[in-house]
Amino acid sequence: MSAHHTPPAGSPRAAIEGTPARKKVAIGSSIGATIETYDFIGFGTAAALYFNTVFFPATDPLSGTLLSFATLGVGFAVRPLGGIVGGYLGDRVGRKPVLVGSLLLMGVATVLIGVLPTYQQVGAWAGVLLVAVRVVQGLAFGAEWGGAILMTFEHAPWRRRGLYTGITQAGFPVGLLLANAAFLVSVPLGEQWAWRVPFLLSAVLIVVGIVIRLKVEESPEFETLKAEGAVSENPLLEVLRTDWRNVLRAFCLRITETAGYALSVTFVMSYLASEELTDRSVTLFALMLAAALGIAATTLWGALTDRIGRRPVYLIGTAITVAWGVPLFLLLNTGQATAIVIAFVVSYAVCQNSLAGVQGAWFPELFHARTRTSGASLAYQLSAVVSGFTPLIATALYARTGWLGPALLFSAYGLLGLVATLLTRETWGRAERAEVAALERAHSARTGADPAPVSGI
């Protein structure tokens, strides 16, 4: 068994069964991920539907859209810095403090968005203030993923790490669903309050999230590293020096998922509105349905990796993404509500979720425990720079080439991920599954306990 999978000394039972807190950690991490996604993705919805005229001059709609998406991209651009800081602290101080701190920072920033003055009130300062708050959001969200996923991953039994991290990853579609539900319900409030109320409601969610996360136990693998004096002195430099190839591979794997989402959801929402193919209520309903299906889909895709491996599932997702670019826009261009709903469901529940459901287990397994948060977070968040500016790039492409440009860009992202998948090693193949099964049998023989069930949590 590789060094990445060797259990801490004296803990075969933890490797087989996970810790007693495994379910609480998975659910707690998922709830936190839900809240942070509500905050961060809600900004994307508002940017696509409202911010082009609220925070920027309404005299030029295309310029306003470009500026709105540029502001959206700023949050993604600073996510790597949040990932670096959060990853460093996660490997040096612990996973739990990062979880609590990132959620608190995100909450403050999101509520502030709800009270910002508009362009009509303060002119160009409105855009400046929006960018400043978006930077804080990006830093917080960048630190979030590594802490939440690593806590779940390291508490979970090895044979079900795909399932458990899939539960945490499912917090993201839950947040997406809640954010868009809030915007849908707030539509009747009028242009002034329709975008403010969803951000202000975040205050309630943050309080709930902080209470839950304070009760989550620290990662057992980090506690073991600390007890053995094996905590890395500089995890960021260490992972870049010893494992930079895996950082690069995971970066390319992640681009397909996150940039694909930015194009097929964020850009598409703006595309549907600007071309007047449908109204906002249809768009939001389609996205909400896709997100609702995505809650189960993400978890099931993760669980599937426990049975057949991480790489086969990723190959399926990237191959579908390559083929989906042109059909996606052909469906959208019909202007039919049913076709638009199908477009969102396939783009999200199939293309995006099949990849997100794998990442929670595959990315951490590529790195050693002492640098795991830094390595996984760095790769995960660096890709956010590409995805953050994808709506802007897609808008510029559309202005020059029509819908075919964004469609081919979506397929190109899929091709990048497909190639990266073929170049990344399998971390949970037949050999690894067989070794864990042998460990389970040996443990069962020593303790007289029945072998662990094949499925379930």
Automatic annotation (TrEMBL):
Transmembrane segments: 66-90, 97-116, 122-142, 163-187, 193-212, 251-272, 284-304, 313-332, 338-358, 378-397, 403-423
Pfam families per the UniProt record, alphabetical: MFS_1 (PF07690), Sugar_tr (PF00083)
InterPro entries: MFS, MFS_dom, MFS_sugar_transport-like, MFS_trans_sf
PROSITE patterns noted in UniProt: MFS
Name recorded for this polypeptide: Putative MFS family arabinose efflux permease
Entry's Gene Ontology molecular function annotations: transmembrane transporter activity
Annotated membrane topology: Multi-pass membrane protein
Coiled coil: none
The Major facilitator superfamily (MFS) profile domain, residue ranges: 25-429
Location within or outside the cell: Cell membrane
SUPFAM superfamilies (alphabetical): MFS general substrate transporter
Main location: membrane
Assigned keywords, A-Z: Cell membrane, Membrane, Transmembrane, Transmembrane helix, Transport
GO cellular component: plasma membrane
